[in-house]
Amino acid sequence: MKKFRIFTILIAIGLFLNCSKDSDNTTPSGIDKSANLLATGDSANDILSNTAYSRLLIEAAYVTGFRPTSETMNNFETYLRNRTFKNDIQVVYRELASPDEETLTLQEIADLESENRTAYNDGQTLAIYIYFADAPSDSDDEDEGIVTLGAVYRNTSMVIHEGVVRKLANRSALITISDVETSTLNHEFGHLFGLVDLGTAMVNPHEDPDAENHCDIAGCLMRAELEFGGGMMSVLEKSKLSKGVAVPTLDAECILDLQNNGGR
Question: Cβ neighbours of residue 113 under 8 Å, at least 6 residues apart?
Answer without folding.
Answer: 129, 131, 157
